Amino acid sequence: MDSIQFLNNLAETKAKYNLGAGVPPLELYPQLFPDELMTLFVKETGADLMPYHRTEGILGEFARTTILLNENIRVEENQVVLTNGVQEAIFLTLQLFKGNKVACLDPYYPGFVDAARIVGCELEIIKEENFLLGLNSLKKGDLFYISADNSNPSGKTLTQQERETLVEIASERGFFLFDDSTYREFNLESKLPTLFSINPKCVIHALSFSKILAPGLRTAFLYLPEALRKSLLKLKSSVSLNNSGFTQGIVGGWLLKNEFILSNHLGIIKNRLRENQKVLVKFGVEYSGGFFILFKPKNQFYNMKLCNSLLLNQGISTCPLSLFSPHENGHLRLCIANINEQQLQKVLDIIINFDYHEY
Ligand SMILES: Cc1ncc(COP(=O)(O)O)c(C=O)c1O
Fold it and tell me: Which fold has domain 3-29+265-358?
Protein backbone atom coordinates (compact mmCIF):
# COMPACT_ATOMS: atom_id res chain seq x y z
CA MET A 1 0.00 0.00 0.00
CA ASP A 2 1.45 3.43 -0.83
CA SER A 3 1.72 6.15 1.80
CA ILE A 4 -1.31 8.17 0.68
CA GLN A 5 -3.53 5.10 0.78
CA PHE A 6 -2.12 4.32 4.24
CA LEU A 7 -2.90 7.88 5.43
CA ASN A 8 -6.41 7.74 3.96
CA ASN A 9 -7.02 4.54 5.90
CA LEU A 10 -5.75 6.23 9.07
CA ALA A 11 -8.28 9.02 8.51
CA GLU A 12 -11.01 6.44 9.03
CA THR A 13 -9.47 4.60 12.00
CA LYS A 14 -11.45 4.50 15.18
CA ALA A 15 -8.32 4.87 17.35
CA LYS A 16 -9.00 6.52 20.70
CA TYR A 17 -6.52 9.26 19.85
CA ASN A 18 -6.06 9.82 16.11
CA LEU A 19 -2.87 11.80 15.68
CA GLY A 20 -2.04 9.91 12.51
CA ALA A 21 -4.21 11.45 9.84
CA GLY A 22 -4.38 15.14 8.97
CA VAL A 23 -8.15 15.20 8.86
CA PRO A 24 -10.01 18.36 9.83
CA PRO A 25 -12.00 17.98 13.09
CA LEU A 26 -15.26 18.91 11.37
CA GLU A 27 -17.27 18.82 14.61
CA LEU A 28 -15.49 22.09 15.51
CA TYR A 29 -16.69 23.81 12.32
CA PRO A 30 -20.13 25.31 11.74
CA GLN A 31 -22.33 22.69 10.10
CA LEU A 32 -22.59 22.78 6.30
CA PHE A 33 -26.02 22.64 4.73
CA PRO A 34 -25.30 21.67 1.12
CA ASP A 35 -28.87 22.10 -0.21
CA GLU A 36 -29.18 25.57 1.24
CA LEU A 37 -25.78 26.62 -0.17
CA MET A 38 -26.50 25.23 -3.64
CA THR A 39 -29.88 26.98 -3.65
CA LEU A 40 -28.26 30.28 -2.69
CA PHE A 41 -25.63 29.91 -5.42
CA VAL A 42 -28.23 29.11 -8.10
CA LYS A 43 -30.43 31.99 -6.98
CA GLU A 44 -27.56 34.49 -7.12
CA THR A 45 -25.89 33.31 -10.33
CA GLY A 46 -28.63 31.55 -12.30
CA ALA A 47 -26.20 28.65 -12.87
CA ASP A 48 -27.42 25.19 -13.80
CA LEU A 49 -25.47 22.65 -11.71
CA MET A 50 -26.57 19.54 -13.60
CA PRO A 51 -24.78 19.59 -16.96
CA TYR A 52 -21.12 19.31 -17.95
CA HIS A 53 -19.38 22.63 -17.41
CA ARG A 54 -16.38 24.42 -18.81
CA THR A 55 -13.14 22.74 -17.69
CA GLU A 56 -11.80 25.78 -15.83
CA GLY A 57 -14.85 25.72 -13.56
CA ILE A 58 -17.88 27.94 -13.05
CA LEU A 59 -16.40 29.64 -9.97
CA GLY A 60 -13.63 31.58 -11.75
CA GLU A 61 -15.05 34.97 -10.79
CA PHE A 62 -15.57 33.73 -7.19
CA ALA A 63 -11.96 32.52 -7.06
CA ARG A 64 -10.77 35.98 -8.12
CA THR A 65 -12.87 37.65 -5.44
CA THR A 66 -11.61 35.15 -2.85
CA ILE A 67 -7.93 35.91 -3.41
CA LEU A 68 -8.64 39.64 -3.61
CA LEU A 69 -10.50 39.78 -0.31
CA ASN A 70 -8.28 37.34 1.62
CA GLU A 71 -4.85 38.16 0.21
CA ASN A 72 -5.35 41.50 -1.48
CA ILE A 73 -4.15 40.03 -4.78
CA ARG A 74 -5.79 40.98 -8.05
CA VAL A 75 -5.76 38.20 -10.66
CA GLU A 76 -7.14 38.03 -14.18
CA GLU A 77 -9.64 35.54 -15.52
CA ASN A 78 -6.88 33.71 -17.37
CA GLN A 79 -4.94 32.99 -14.16
CA VAL A 80 -7.50 30.74 -12.45
CA VAL A 81 -8.49 27.05 -12.72
CA LEU A 82 -10.68 24.93 -10.44
CA THR A 83 -9.42 21.45 -9.62
CA ASN A 84 -10.72 18.45 -7.72
CA GLY A 85 -8.68 19.30 -4.66
CA VAL A 86 -5.03 20.28 -4.53
CA GLN A 87 -4.11 16.65 -5.16
CA GLU A 88 -5.48 16.81 -8.71
CA ALA A 89 -3.66 20.12 -9.18
CA ILE A 90 -0.39 18.46 -8.10
CA PHE A 91 -0.91 15.54 -10.47
CA LEU A 92 -1.76 17.74 -13.46
CA THR A 93 1.14 20.09 -12.74
CA LEU A 94 3.56 17.17 -12.56
CA GLN A 95 2.37 16.00 -15.97
CA LEU A 96 3.22 19.44 -17.32
CA PHE A 97 6.74 19.26 -15.89
CA LYS A 98 7.40 15.66 -16.85
CA GLY A 99 10.33 16.50 -19.12
CA ASN A 100 11.97 18.66 -16.45
CA LYS A 101 13.24 18.15 -12.93
CA VAL A 102 10.79 18.42 -10.05
CA ALA A 103 11.87 18.88 -6.45
CA CYS A 104 10.49 19.13 -2.94
CA LEU A 105 11.71 19.23 0.64
CA ASP A 106 12.73 16.38 2.90
CA PRO A 107 10.57 15.60 4.86
CA TYR A 108 7.97 15.70 2.10
CA TYR A 109 4.24 15.57 1.50
CA PRO A 110 3.75 12.04 0.06
CA GLY A 111 0.95 13.23 -2.22
CA PHE A 112 3.62 15.07 -4.20
CA VAL A 113 6.35 12.42 -4.14
CA ASP A 114 4.05 9.47 -4.90
CA ALA A 115 2.49 11.40 -7.79
CA ALA A 116 5.92 12.42 -9.16
CA ARG A 117 6.94 8.76 -9.18
CA ILE A 118 3.73 7.64 -10.87
CA VAL A 119 4.07 10.33 -13.54
CA GLY A 120 7.73 9.33 -14.02
CA CYS A 121 9.28 12.72 -13.25
CA GLU A 122 12.95 13.19 -12.44
CA LEU A 123 12.61 13.90 -8.70
CA GLU A 124 15.01 15.53 -6.27
CA ILE A 125 14.33 15.66 -2.53
CA ILE A 126 16.14 18.55 -0.83
CA LYS A 127 16.86 18.67 2.92
CA GLU A 128 14.56 21.19 4.63
CA GLU A 129 17.40 22.65 6.68
CA ASN A 130 19.15 25.35 4.61
CA PHE A 131 17.02 24.34 1.63
CA LEU A 132 17.71 27.58 -0.26
CA LEU A 133 21.30 26.40 -0.79
CA GLY A 134 20.00 23.10 -2.14
CA LEU A 135 18.15 24.75 -5.03
CA ASN A 136 21.33 25.02 -7.12
CA SER A 137 20.46 22.05 -9.29
CA LEU A 138 17.15 23.57 -10.47
CA LYS A 139 17.19 25.14 -13.89
CA LYS A 140 14.89 26.97 -16.29
CA GLY A 141 11.57 25.17 -16.64
CA ASP A 142 11.94 22.98 -13.51
CA LEU A 143 9.46 22.88 -10.62
CA PHE A 144 9.90 23.22 -6.87
CA TYR A 145 6.98 22.17 -4.64
CA ILE A 146 6.68 23.70 -1.17
CA SER A 147 4.10 24.71 1.42
CA ALA A 148 5.10 28.19 2.55
CA ASP A 149 2.71 28.03 5.51
CA ASN A 150 2.41 25.34 8.20
CA SER A 151 3.63 22.58 5.94
CA ASN A 152 2.74 18.93 6.07
CA PRO A 153 4.57 17.09 7.66
CA SER A 154 7.05 19.38 9.45
CA GLY A 155 4.74 22.32 10.27
CA LYS A 156 7.37 24.73 8.93
CA THR A 157 6.37 28.25 7.86
CA LEU A 158 8.78 30.24 5.71
CA THR A 159 10.05 33.55 7.11
CA GLN A 160 9.60 36.77 5.15
CA GLN A 161 13.28 36.62 4.15
CA GLU A 162 13.03 32.99 3.00
CA ARG A 163 9.96 33.86 0.90
CA GLU A 164 11.69 36.74 -0.82
CA THR A 165 14.90 34.82 -1.44
CA LEU A 166 13.06 31.74 -2.72
CA VAL A 167 11.01 33.73 -5.23
CA GLU A 168 14.07 35.73 -6.28
CA ILE A 169 16.06 32.55 -6.96
CA ALA A 170 13.14 30.99 -8.89
CA SER A 171 12.58 34.06 -11.07
CA GLU A 172 16.30 34.56 -11.75
CA ARG A 173 16.81 30.91 -12.73
CA GLY A 174 13.47 30.54 -14.51
CA PHE A 175 12.03 27.64 -12.51
CA PHE A 176 8.48 27.52 -11.13
CA LEU A 177 7.23 27.24 -7.55
CA PHE A 178 4.13 25.31 -6.53
CA ASP A 179 2.94 26.75 -3.20
CA ASP A 180 0.52 24.33 -1.54
CA SER A 181 -1.38 26.64 0.82
CA THR A 182 -3.65 23.93 2.29
CA TYR A 183 -2.91 24.92 5.91
CA ARG A 184 -2.35 28.68 5.48
CA GLU A 185 -5.64 29.67 7.13
CA PHE A 186 -4.62 27.77 10.29
CA ASN A 187 -1.69 30.03 11.07
CA LEU A 188 -1.86 31.35 14.64
CA GLU A 189 0.32 34.37 13.91
CA SER A 190 -0.22 37.12 11.37
CA LYS A 191 0.00 35.87 7.82
CA LEU A 192 3.12 36.62 5.76
CA PRO A 193 2.73 37.41 2.05
CA THR A 194 2.09 34.48 -0.28
CA LEU A 195 4.83 33.56 -2.75
CA PHE A 196 2.30 34.33 -5.50
CA SER A 197 1.94 37.91 -4.30
CA ILE A 198 5.72 38.35 -4.55
CA ASN A 199 5.87 37.21 -8.19
CA PRO A 200 2.80 35.68 -9.88
CA LYS A 201 4.81 34.94 -13.03
CA CYS A 202 6.71 32.03 -11.48
CA VAL A 203 4.32 30.78 -8.76
CA ILE A 204 1.37 28.39 -8.80
CA HIS A 205 -0.72 29.03 -5.69
CA ALA A 206 -3.04 26.19 -4.64
CA LEU A 207 -5.91 26.87 -2.24
CA SER A 208 -7.74 23.78 -0.97
CA PHE A 209 -11.19 23.82 0.60
CA SER A 210 -10.56 20.41 2.20
CA LYS A 211 -9.33 21.69 5.56
CA ILE A 212 -11.27 24.98 5.51
CA LEU A 213 -14.64 23.35 4.73
CA ALA A 214 -14.58 19.60 4.10
CA PRO A 215 -12.40 17.12 2.17
CA GLY A 216 -15.52 15.63 0.56
CA LEU A 217 -15.99 18.76 -1.54
CA ARG A 218 -12.85 17.89 -3.53
CA THR A 219 -12.45 21.55 -4.49
CA ALA A 220 -9.38 23.74 -4.90
CA PHE A 221 -8.70 27.09 -6.56
CA LEU A 222 -5.49 27.15 -8.55
CA TYR A 223 -3.91 30.53 -9.35
CA LEU A 224 -1.20 30.19 -11.94
CA PRO A 225 0.77 31.93 -14.69
CA GLU A 226 -1.25 32.24 -17.88
CA ALA A 227 1.47 30.40 -19.79
CA LEU A 228 0.83 27.21 -17.81
CA ARG A 229 -2.93 27.49 -17.60
CA LYS A 230 -3.72 26.53 -21.19
CA SER A 231 -1.77 23.28 -21.11
CA LEU A 232 -3.06 22.43 -17.63
CA LEU A 233 -6.64 22.85 -18.84
CA LYS A 234 -5.95 20.60 -21.80
CA LEU A 235 -4.77 17.89 -19.39
CA LYS A 236 -7.64 18.41 -16.96
CA SER A 237 -10.18 18.10 -19.76
CA SER A 238 -8.93 14.55 -20.39
CA VAL A 239 -8.69 13.62 -16.71
CA SER A 240 -11.80 14.89 -14.93
CA LEU A 241 -13.51 17.03 -17.62
CA ASN A 242 -14.64 19.53 -14.99
CA ASN A 243 -15.33 19.76 -11.26
CA SER A 244 -18.80 18.63 -10.26
CA GLY A 245 -21.41 21.36 -10.61
CA PHE A 246 -22.88 20.32 -7.27
CA THR A 247 -19.72 20.78 -5.24
CA GLN A 248 -19.01 24.04 -7.05
CA GLY A 249 -22.53 25.13 -6.09
CA ILE A 250 -21.87 24.28 -2.42
CA VAL A 251 -18.52 26.10 -2.33
CA GLY A 252 -19.97 29.06 -4.27
CA GLY A 253 -22.97 29.30 -1.91
CA TRP A 254 -20.67 29.08 1.12
CA LEU A 255 -18.48 31.88 -0.24
CA LEU A 256 -21.52 34.08 -0.82
CA LYS A 257 -22.84 33.35 2.66
CA ASN A 258 -19.46 34.07 4.28
CA GLU A 259 -18.71 37.14 2.17
CA PHE A 260 -15.71 35.32 0.67
CA ILE A 261 -13.72 35.34 3.92
CA LEU A 262 -11.98 32.00 4.39
CA SER A 263 -11.21 31.94 8.10
CA ASN A 264 -13.95 33.77 10.06
CA HIS A 265 -15.65 30.46 10.83
CA LEU A 266 -12.44 28.80 12.10
CA GLY A 267 -12.47 30.47 15.54
CA ILE A 268 -13.23 27.32 17.56
CA ILE A 269 -10.65 25.13 15.89
CA LYS A 270 -8.03 27.90 16.09
CA ASN A 271 -8.74 28.30 19.82
CA ARG A 272 -8.08 24.61 20.23
CA LEU A 273 -4.81 24.96 18.31
CA ARG A 274 -3.85 27.89 20.58
CA GLU A 275 -4.54 25.84 23.72
CA ASN A 276 -2.55 22.96 22.26
CA GLN A 277 0.30 25.37 21.51
CA LYS A 278 0.60 26.03 25.28
CA VAL A 279 0.96 22.30 25.92
CA LEU A 280 3.58 21.99 23.18
CA VAL A 281 5.66 24.79 24.71
CA LYS A 282 5.88 22.69 27.90
CA PHE A 283 7.31 19.84 25.82
CA GLY A 284 9.80 22.17 24.12
CA VAL A 285 8.09 22.00 20.71
CA GLU A 286 7.96 25.14 18.57
CA TYR A 287 4.58 25.47 16.86
CA SER A 288 2.97 28.41 15.07
CA GLY A 289 -0.14 26.86 13.53
CA GLY A 290 -1.41 24.26 11.11
CA PHE A 291 -2.16 20.64 11.94
CA PHE A 292 1.26 19.05 12.33
CA ILE A 293 4.33 18.82 14.51
CA LEU A 294 7.40 16.63 14.46
CA PHE A 295 8.10 15.04 17.81
CA LYS A 296 10.98 12.94 19.10
CA PRO A 297 11.21 11.97 22.72
CA LYS A 298 14.76 11.56 24.06
CA ASN A 299 16.01 7.98 23.97
CA GLN A 300 13.12 6.85 21.78
CA PHE A 301 13.37 5.96 18.09
CA TYR A 302 9.90 5.75 16.61
CA ASN A 303 9.60 3.54 13.54
CA MET A 304 6.60 1.77 12.01
CA LYS A 305 6.91 -1.13 14.48
CA LEU A 306 6.86 1.14 17.53
CA CYS A 307 3.96 3.20 16.10
CA ASN A 308 2.06 -0.02 15.57
CA SER A 309 2.67 -1.07 19.17
CA LEU A 310 1.57 2.38 20.40
CA LEU A 311 -1.67 2.00 18.46
CA LEU A 312 -2.41 -1.55 19.61
CA ASN A 313 -1.54 -1.01 23.26
CA GLN A 314 -2.51 2.60 23.93
CA GLY A 315 -5.01 3.41 21.17
CA ILE A 316 -2.80 6.24 19.88
CA SER A 317 -2.46 6.44 16.12
CA THR A 318 0.70 8.23 14.88
CA CYS A 319 2.94 8.23 11.82
CA PRO A 320 6.67 7.56 11.82
CA LEU A 321 8.52 10.26 9.89
CA SER A 322 9.88 7.52 7.63
CA LEU A 323 6.55 7.78 5.75
CA PHE A 324 7.58 11.30 4.76
CA SER A 325 11.32 10.99 4.28
CA PRO A 326 13.87 8.71 2.65
CA HIS A 327 15.67 8.71 6.01
CA GLU A 328 14.48 7.17 9.26
CA ASN A 329 15.34 9.46 12.14
CA GLY A 330 13.02 8.28 14.89
CA HIS A 331 10.65 11.27 14.76
CA LEU A 332 6.88 11.05 14.79
CA ARG A 333 4.58 13.22 12.75
CA LEU A 334 1.64 14.12 14.95
CA CYS A 335 -1.59 15.76 13.84
CA ILE A 336 -2.59 17.81 16.88
CA ALA A 337 -5.85 19.20 15.49
CA ASN A 338 -8.06 16.27 16.46
CA ILE A 339 -7.51 16.30 20.22
CA ASN A 340 -7.91 18.92 22.93
CA GLU A 341 -5.22 20.18 25.30
CA GLN A 342 -5.88 17.65 28.11
CA GLN A 343 -5.75 14.81 25.61
CA LEU A 344 -2.59 16.21 24.02
CA GLN A 345 -0.86 16.46 27.40
CA LYS A 346 -1.86 12.87 28.17
CA VAL A 347 -0.82 11.50 24.77
CA LEU A 348 2.58 13.21 24.80
CA ASP A 349 3.26 11.87 28.32
CA ILE A 350 2.41 8.37 27.13
CA ILE A 351 4.56 8.71 24.00
CA ILE A 352 7.53 9.90 26.02
CA ASN A 353 7.29 7.07 28.52
CA PHE A 354 6.21 4.32 26.14
CA ASP A 355 8.29 1.18 26.45
CA TYR A 356 7.20 -1.45 23.98
CA HIS A 357 9.28 -4.12 25.77
CA GLU A 358 6.57 -4.06 28.44
CA TYR A 359 4.00 -5.41 26.00
C1 LIG B 1 -0.06 19.40 2.09
C2 LIG B 1 -1.31 18.84 1.54
N3 LIG B 1 -1.64 19.14 0.28
C4 LIG B 1 -2.76 18.65 -0.28
C5 LIG B 1 -3.60 17.81 0.43
C6 LIG B 1 -4.82 17.27 -0.25
O7 LIG B 1 -5.65 18.34 -0.52
P8 LIG B 1 -7.01 18.14 -1.33
O9 LIG B 1 -7.96 17.45 -0.42
O10 LIG B 1 -7.38 19.55 -1.65
O11 LIG B 1 -6.69 17.34 -2.55
C12 LIG B 1 -3.30 17.47 1.74
C13 LIG B 1 -4.19 16.58 2.49
O14 LIG B 1 -3.96 16.18 3.59
C15 LIG B 1 -2.13 18.00 2.31
O16 LIG B 1 -1.78 17.69 3.56
Answer: Aspartate Aminotransferase, domain 1 (3.90.1150)
Residue 89: other Cβ atoms inside 10 A: 25
Query: What 3-state class would DSSP assign to 320?
Result: strand
Which regions of the chain carry the CATH code 3.40.640.10? 34-257
**Residue nearest ligand 1's atom 8 by CA:** 85
The pLDDT value recorded for residue 10 is 65
Looking at the chain, the domain(s) classified CATH 3.90.1150.10 span 3-29+265-358
Cα 127 to ligand 1 centre (Å)? 21
Question: Does residue 1 carry a pLDDT above 60?
Answer: no
Residue range 34-257, CATH number: 3.40.640.10
At 218, is the pLDDT very low, low, confident or very high (cuts 50, 70, 90)?
A: very high
For residue 206, the CA-to-ligand 1 centroid distance in Å is: 10
Whose Cα sits closest to atom 13 in ligand 1? 22
Beta strand ranges found along the chain (DSSP E):
17-18, 80-83, 101-106, 122-127, 143-146, 176-180, 203-208, 220-223, 292-295, 316-317, 319-320, 332-335
Closest-lying ligand 1 atom to the alpha carbon of residue 291: 16
- Mutation test of ligand 1: which of 87, 157, 209 has the most ligand atoms closer than 8 Å to its C-beta? 87
Which among 104, 210, 236 is the best mutation to test ligand 1's pocket, defined by most ligand atoms within 8 Å of the CB? 210
pLDDT digits (tens, 9 = 90+) for 162-216: 999 999 999 999 999 999 999 999 999 989 999 999 999 999 999 999 999 999 9
Neighbours of 230 (CB within 10 A): 9
